[in-house]
Amino acid sequence: MFRRSIGKSLRLNRASKLTQMENGQTPNEKYLHDFTYHGKEYSVSEAKEVLSPYFDGSGSVDLEKDDNGIAKICLNNPRLKNAISVKMMSDLDEITDKLYQWTECKGAILYGTDGNFCSGGDLKLAKKMNNASNGYAMSVYFGHILDKFKKLPIITVAYINGTGAFGGGAEVTTACDYRLMCNVADTTGIGFVHSKMGIVPAWGSTGRLVSIMGGAKKVLDLLLEARTLSAAEAMDLGLVDGTVATLEDAGAWLSGKISRDVNVIRAIKRTVLCYDDDDDSKAEARELERRIFAPLWGGTANQAALQLRLKHNR
């Protein structure tokens, strides 16, 4: 009886392996073939060119340089609660280049105008550019901008106020060294709500979140649940570093971090980045992220969510 059981088990294992290798593909290889992007790959410059028809969108990102070596970077699209457009990300790209050139800069605060941080991506724009090729190009270009911003040799803080940071807005905060939330209103939140929109993060935030929160399981829960987190919940998870009442308070908080000589601060940031630079495996993961995201962008679930005009408020 025992031998028959072993024989049956061996036959099942062999059958399983044969199924796995059907047509020369393992289940993982079949998934990657069937559910990921197979279109044209783009360099950063090519991705920017693909997105060029959408550069006339609304909003801007504005830079203000203070004499104390702190930059203020303002997401400025108040009609849409600072929803992100292609033009705004292009502005952030140019501002990032300027900050690399400003050698006396110690730190930067990223915030939103008109009392709100960022409601996510511009949904009207999303409908216009809603196909896999544009999704892949967007992932390449936006991800490059946020990677470049993250590697600035200065200390960066996102000040999340008003309704808070959602979707793409939440992704942008992960490119900052620190995140602060406003404690004036209970309605301020942060939410990686991508799954509600039928998509996944695609600007590099998944990898950053694993580093920020210290574990893949926490990030898995965060993305699957797609909940709006209060300041207290976000702090418990390690996603947010503190709370303040005003933008001025955020500036004071940052000033406390950058009281040393400018060259020492920039050296510390560069040294830390040496241990967090993308290696080959991370680069491969980012490429896979783009390929997984692209078919979802404009897919059935995403189209349905866009038609519902989902709002990211609580």
UniProtKB/TrEMBL annotation:
Segments traversing the membrane: none
What keywords would UniProt list here? Answer: Lyase
Q: Name one Pfam family in it.
A: ECH_1
The record's annotation in InterPro entries points to: ClpP/crotonase-like_dom_sf, Enoyl-CoA_hydra/iso
Q: Which domain of life is it from?
A: Eukaryota
Molecular function (GO) terms for this protein are: lyase activity
BP-aspect Gene Ontology terms: fatty acid beta-oxidation
GO cellular component terms, semicolon-separated: cytosol
- What is the name listed in the Swiss-Prot or TrEMBL entry for this protein? Uncharacterized protein
Keyword Lyase listed: yes
Q: What is the lineage of its organism?
A: Eukaryota, Metazoa, Ecdysozoa, Arthropoda, Hexapoda
Q: Which SUPFAM superfamilies match?
A: ClpP/crotonase
